[in-house]
């Protein structure tokens, strides 16, 4: 009922039931970081693409002087800076030699400084 009243009032005052979208107030949460802090965060990630989120968390806490949740940092990176998270997986060469060759071919073009390996070392 209140939406109908709002539209009726809008129609009476403006002659239209639509508003100029440029006059709408921004909805949703505000940025956690200032534009300057976002630029610093982007520089940190650009200069060290293999940085762990907890390392970035510490750096941002030092910059802002406040505690910052890892999820907040991820949201800022993704939603406001347009950065994405890329993951790769490994293939056990003992299970499928063909899959292993495909895997090696896929990661061959990734610079070594961008790869982080965890787990056991596989030897042949």
In words, what does this structure look like?
With 124 residues, the chain is an all-alpha fold. It has two domains: 31-84; 86-124, no CATH class. The chain is 48% helix and 0% strand. The protein has helices at residues 2-14, 35-47, 53-64, 70-80, 97-107. α2 runs antiparallel to α3. It is elongated and about 75 Å long. The termini are far apart. The mean pLDDT is 77.
Short key terms for the protein model shown above:
124 residues, mainly alpha, 2 domains, 48% helix, elongated
Q: Give the low-pLDDT segments.
A: none
Number of helices: 5
Residues in helices, as a percent range: 40-55%
End-to-end separation in angstroms reads 72 Å
Mean pLDDT comes to 77
The secondary structure category is: mainly alpha
| Main β-sheet description | none
As a whole number of angstroms, the C-alpha radius of gyration is 24 Å
List the helices and strands and how they pair.
Blueprint lengths: L1 H13 L20 H13 L5 H12 L5 H11 L16 H11 L17
């Amino acid at each position: 009922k209140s939406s109908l009243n709002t539209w009726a009032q809008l129609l009476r005052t403006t002659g239209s039931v639509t508003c100029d979208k440029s006059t709408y107030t921004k909805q949703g949460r505000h940025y956690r970081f200032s534009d300057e802090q976002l630029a610093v965060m982007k520089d940190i990630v650009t200069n060290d693409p293999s940085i762990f989120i907890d390392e970035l968390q510490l750096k941002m806490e030092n910059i802002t002087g406040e505690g910052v949740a890892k999820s907040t940092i991820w949201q800022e990176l993704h939603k406001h800076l347009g950065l994405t998270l890329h993951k790769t997986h490994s293939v056990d060469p003992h299970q499928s030699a063909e899959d292993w060759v495909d895997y090696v071919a896929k990661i061959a073009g990734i610079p070594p400084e961008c790869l982080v390996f965890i787990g056991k070392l596989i030897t042949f």
